[in-house]
Amino acid sequence: MEVDFEQDLSIQLHDVARLTRVVADRCARLQGMTRAQWVVLIKLSRTPGLTQREMADALEIEPISLARLIDKLQAAGLVERRADLADRRIWRLHLTPAATPVLAEIMARRNHLVALVLNGMTSETQAAMLAGFKLMKRNLAGLLEAAPAEEDA
């Protein structure tokens, strides 16, 4: 059976996600940053004090890759590492005051991008898509919980 790629939801979802990343990368470059740096700043604005390990896990990247990202953000004066009060071997990540205007610009660019992506889409369609994505996310999370990891098998 031949697959009609134009009508295949999973392919369309993948393409939209990929194109969104490409456009977001371009937006970040206009600010002299990377999308990964944007994500770190946004995540820290929502959850200050994460450890480097927690941040790496949340971003699904290796700790060494995150360390390089944090080094660059720290050199730019946007992020600081603070020793954990209970365990000085652990670094907690915090935004600096200098990150506030940068984060405001990131959010403005992000909001503009979202507006462009959703242009012409009714609020009803957006709500239906959001509900569908949430269901898909729950279904996938359920599969991960139900099936043993490959390394456990």
Characterization of this structure:
- The chain has 153 residues and is mainly α.
- It has one domain: Arc Repressor Mutant, subunit A.
- Helices cover 64% and strands 7% of the residues.
- It contains six helices and two strands; from the N terminus they run ααααββαα.
- It has helices spanning 9-30, 35-46, 52-59, 63-75, 99-117, 123-146; strands at 79-83, 91-95.
- A two-stranded antiparallel sheet has the order 1-2.
- Strand 1 and strand 2 (91-95) form a beta hairpin.
- The longest helix has 24 residues, at 123-146.
- The two termini are 33 Å apart.
Order of helices and strands: HHHHEEHH
Number of strands: 2
Q: What is the mean pLDDT?
A: 92
* Strand order in the sheet with the most strands: 1-2
CATH topology type: Arc Repressor Mutant, subunit A
**Count of separate structural domains:** 1
Low-confidence stretches: none
The count of helical stretches stands at 6
- CATH homologous superfamily assignment: Winged helix-like DNA-binding domain superfamily/Winged helix DNA-binding domain
Assign a percent range to the helix content. 55-70%
**Strand content range:** 5-15%
Q: What global shape is seen?
A: globular
CATH level-two architecture? Orthogonal Bundle
* Structural class by helix and strand composition: mainly alpha
Rg measurement, Å: 19 Å
Give the terminus-to-terminus CA distance: 33 Å
Q: What does the main sheet amount to?
A: 2 strands, antiparallel
